User: Fold these one by one.
Assistant:
Number 1:
Amino acid sequence: KKVPGVSSALAERLNGGRYVDVDIDRDAAARYGLNIADVQSIVSSAIGGDNIGETTEGLQRFPINLRYPREVRDSVEKLRQLPVLTERGAQIRLGDVANIKINDGPPMLKSENARLSGWVYVDIRGRDLSSAVKDMQQVVAKEVKLPPGYSISWSGQFEYLERASEKLKIVVPATLLIIFVLLYLTFSRFDEAALIMGTLPFALAGGIWLEWILGHNLSIASGVGFIALAGVAAEFGVIMLLYLKHAWEARLIAGKISEADLLSAIREGAVLRVRPKAMTVAVIIAGLVPIMVGSGTGSEVMQRIAAPMVGGMITAPLLSMFVVPVVYLLLRRR
C-alpha cells in the first residue's frame, strides 16, 4: 500500500475454513487387511454418502443416497467410533486405522495451473501500470520471504501488458524494416530512403507532445497510434520527395544543372505539395477529433489511439514541407 499509485490492496482470506482431516495409518490398516482405497471408500460412502438408486415421482427423478445418520457423524469423536467391517469379518472402528482431527484452512479452495493459489487484488490510480508493478515487485522481493514450495506471479492487466509489449518488440522493428525496404524499392537510392526514415522520429514528436499534454501514459493503444502515425509520416515524406525529384529531373532534361536551378526546382516541388498536404491533414484531423472528444464505451482506448495521430498531424506536415526540401538540397547540391 505504500507504493505510489496504489489506491487499494485487498488480500483474500486464507484462513477461516474448518476441515475434518482423515489421516489414514497405513500400518494399522494393513494389519486389518485394508489398504488406503478401502478406508477412503468407507469414509466417502459412510460420511459423504453413496447413491444406491433413483426414485421417480411423475416427471421428476431423485437420487437415493445412503450414509450414516447425522447424529453419528456430527462430531470428531463419533466419527472415530464409526464401525468398519474388514474382509475377514472383523468389526473395527474408523479411529483404529485413521487419525481424525479438525484443521484450519481456506474458506474456499482455489487452484491455478494445478497449484493452490491465493490472490491479492491491487487497484492503481494516477500512475502507469508498468512502473507501479515494477515498484511493487521490488518491495515484495525485499520484504516478503516465501516458504519452500511457494511462488508469486503477477497477473491481470499487467500480464496482458507484458504479453503485448513482447509482441510490440517484434512488430515495431518489423514495421520500420518493411517501410525502409518499400522506400528503397520506390527510390532505388539508399540516401533518399534513409532521409525518409530519419524524419520519422521528428514527425512522431507531435504525438508525444499531445500525449504528455493530455496526461496519457504510454500504453499498447498509444503504441498502435504511433505505428499508424509512422506510416502516415512516411507517406508525407515520400510524396514530398517524389515532387522534388520530378521537378529536378525536369530541369536536368532541359540542361539546367546550376545550384539556382536546384533551388528553383525545390521551391516548385515544395509549393505544389502545400495544398494537397493541407487537405490531407484537415481530413485526418476532422475524422479523429470526434474520437478525441467522445465519452462513450471504449472511448478511453480510442482516444489513446487517436491522440498520437492528431498530434503528429501538426509536426509531420511541417517536417515534410520544411525539413525534407532542405535535406534534399544538401543531398543534391554537389
Number 2:
Amino acid sequence: MVSIAKEELLPLTLKAKLNGGVVFGTCIISTSPHFLRPTQASGVDFVFLDTEHISIEREKLSWLCQSYGALGMTPIVRVPEPDPYKVCCALDGGAVGIVAPYIETVAEVKALIGAVKLRPFKGDKLEKILQALNPSQGPESLYETVKSIHGQAVADFMKQKNGNTLLFINIESQKAIDNMDDLVGLPGVDGVFIGPADLSVQLGVPRQWENPLLLDTIASIIERTRSLKKHIGCHWGFVNAKKNQVKWVLELGADIV
C-alpha cells in the first residue's frame, strides 16, 4: 500500500504550477455568473480580472474572485493604479495575484511588495524592510530580509500568510524597459505582464501588431525577465496570436499564456 501525504492531495497553487511549467489564463470582461462553468471547462489555470479598464465595483470583484477561485481558477486582479490600499482591497476580496499597471520606478514596486508580500505591516516597520531590499539579493531573499530585521517568528508568519500570493508588474513603456533590472529584479516581484497596446504607442508604432520593433521589444523583455529568474507572459489576442504565443514559450521561455 502506497502512503500519500495529506499535502500531496491538495491542488497546486498557481505559484507551484509556474515553478513547474507553463500556465494558461484568460481575461474575464463580464461579471455574469454564466461564464463560470464554461471558463472552468476550458481548463485555464487562472483568470485575469482587469479593474484598470473595466468598471468592477469592490463587492462584485470579491464575488468574482471567490467564485472563480472556488472552481480552481486562480483570480489575478489588475488594480487601476499602483496604490497599496487598492491592492489590499483586492487581496481582502479574494485575489491571489496582483498586476499593477504602468510601472516605471523602484519606489512604486517597493510599495507594491509591501502590500502584496508583507501584509499586515505598514508604517515604520514596513519601511525598514522595503529600504533594505535591492535587486542583487536574489528572488528568494525577501523573507530572509524580514528575518534579519524583525526576527524568525515574523518572517515565518509573513511567508505563511503571503508566500503564495503573486505580484506581477506591467512593463509597457520605454522607461520601464530601461529600468527593468532594478524593477523586476527586486525580491518579491514574481514576474511581468507585458502591456502590448500601451507599449506599441510608447514605441511609436501604435497598434501595429506586426511591426518588427514591437515584436522584437516584446522578445527582449521576455528574455531579460527570464534571465532574472522571474515569470512572464504577454496577453495577445491580435494578429498571429497562436504563432506568437508558441514562439514566446518554446523559443524564448515565456511561461504564462
Number 3:
Amino acid sequence: KGNAYFALNECEKAIELYNVSLKYKESILTEIKINPRFLEASNEQLTAYYKASLASIYFTLSECKTNLGYFDEALADINTALELTSDIKNLDLNKETYYNLRGYIYAMNGKYEQAISDFNKSIQINKNFTLAYVNRAIAKVSLVEKVKCSSYSIRGNFNNQPMSVNWILPTKSSLKKSESNILSALSDCNTAIEIDDKFGFSYYIRGQIKQMLMHGDYCMDLLTAREFGLIVEAE
C-alpha cells in the first residue's frame, strides 16, 4: 500500500505505511520461510532475502523523505539500507541505485566530494547507469560554482528530470581555474548520451555546461531536452 501511495507521489502517506511495515518487520522473515518459493533455501539465503526486503523498505523511505526535503532523515535511512545489504551476495539488489540516491542526498546538502564518491561507486557497479553519470557531472560543476535547485523530485517525473538546476555562470577568470572540472563534467554527460541518447536529462545538463564553456551549440542540447519532455527554464 505504501508503494501505491509512493507511485501517486503521496509521500507522507507512503512513509506512514512503510513505518507500520517496519513495526511488524519480524513477520517478514516468517512470511519468507512459509513461501513455497524458498522451500529449499538455506538459513543463510533466508536471512539474505529478509535483509534485502528490509533494505528495500528503508531505500524507498529514503526516496520519500528526499522528495519531501527531509535530507537528514533520508540519509539515515539510506545508510541503514546500505548497512543491511553490506554482506549480501548472489542477489541482484540494484545497489547502484542505493549509492546514487545517497550521492544525490549529499549533493543536495552541498557535500559534493562525498556525492562524487557515491556516484563513482554507482558507476562501478553498473557502468551503464546513465543517471549516475549526469548526477556526477552536476556534483563536479557544483564543486566550482554554487548550484541553486529550484525543484527536486524522486518520483513522478524523476526519471526524466530529477531536479532543475540553475548555475551562476562563472566569470572568465573563475572559468579558467575550474575548466578541467567542468570539462570532466561535460565528458560524463557525453558518456550518458552515448549509453542512452533518449535520456533528456543528459542533454539538459550538458547544454548548461556547454553554455558555461561558451560552446555555440548549447541551445541545441536544451532544445533536445525540451523535446524529450523536460522543463527548460526561460532564461
Number 4:
Amino acid sequence: MVTPDNRPLDLSLVIACYNEEPHLKHSVAEILAVMDQSGLSYELIFVEDKSPDGTRRVLAELTHELALAHPDVAVTVILHDVNQGRGATVRDGMRAARGRVMGFIDIDLEVHCRYIPDMVRAIDNGFDVATGFRVYHVDGTNITRHILSVGYRSLMRRAVNTSLKDTETGYKFFHRQRCLPVVESTMTNGWFWDTEVMVLCERAGLRITEIPVAFVRKLDKESTVNVIPDSVDYARR
C-alpha cells in the first residue's frame, strides 16, 4: 500500500481485541491523537478474537465512526469465528499488514501509545525489531504480577539462552519484509507467542532493540491473563 503522494505506508498497527468493550473507543482515540501528531502514515488492523462481552458491537460502531471522521486512515477488521488466542490473533493481523513497519500494542494502553513513534524511528535507524522493555511502578496492587513477571524473565533467559530482557511485553514492532517470515514460522496461538517470536527473531540474527517504557497497571480493567495457569503454561513451553 502507498500513500496519496506515492510514499510507502509507514506503519501497520495491529490491535488485538478480546474483552475490550469498556476502553476500546477511548484507547483508539488516544492512538489516533499520537499518530496524527507523529507525521507517520498508518493503517489500523483490528482482529477480534470472539470476545464474550460487547467488544464486537463496539468495534462495529468504532469502525463506522472512523470512516466518517478519519477517511484517510485505512481500517481493516478481521473477525474470528472461534476464540484462537493472543498469538493467532496478532499473527493474523500481521499477515494483513501492508506498511513497511508492522507492530502491535496491547489496547488497554498499560504501556501508553506515546512510544509508537520511537519504535518506528528505531527501525528506521537500522533495527529489525523494536520492543518495549517494561519499567514497573510497583505497589501493593500489582506486586504479585510483578514478581511473577520478573521470575519468568529470569527463567526464560536461562531456559532458551537469550539475552533479551522482556520478551513477553505486548508492544512489538517489526520491519515487515525482514520479519514476516519469522512471524509466519511461529506455532504458538496463546500468550507464549510473545516469547516465541522474540527468541526466533534473535536466533534468525535480526537486530533487536528493547526500549524502556513505563508500565502502569489499570486497576479498572480485568486482566485476560490467568496468572497461575498461564505461568505454568509459559514455564512448560
